[in-house]
Design brief:
The protein is built from no helices and nine strands. It is an all-beta fold.
Length: 124
């Protein structure tokens, strides 16, 4: 069963302090990391091997095409540490994962909608 979990869920990451948003993707699927807007993919970690992960700079609902592709990552081997990509996108980010129902990868970066936290207090 394919699933995507994006976190942290209780707050926005503190990008100024180096925190990243994380998406845990399991199985063959087309996962929308950011429906629209800019951001970047910092790194990926392969937990269970698969075939490929293709990242596209497209808004949600747009069909992935070669002209919108940011990068292709081989999921043939489990990674000990993160694979650094540092790939920027401007329209939105969609990843197409292939390789089987048990394929597992974790994507980190700055993506997805951010909302103003009720617990955020500005520093003066």
């Amino acid at each position: 069963m394919a699933s995507v979990t994006i976190g942290p869920v209780d707050r926005n990451p503190d990008y100024a302090r180096g925190e990243k948003k994380v998406a845990h993707i399991i199985g063959d699927q087309t996962a929308v990391l950011s429906a629209r807007g800019g951001g970047h993919i910092h790194s990926i970690i392969v937990g269970v091997t698969g075939t490929l992960a293709k990242f596209y700079d497209i808004a949600a609902g747009v069909t992935p095409a070669a002209g919108n592709q940011m990068c292709t990552v081989s999921l043939a081997a489990v990674t000990v540490g993160p694979m650094i990509l540092d790939a920027a996108f401007s329209k939105g980010c969609t990843v197409v994962v292939t390789g089987g129902a048990s394929t597992e990868l974790t994507v980190s970066g700055q993506f997805g909608a951010t909302s103003k936290s009720q617990y955020h207090f500005p520093v003066r």
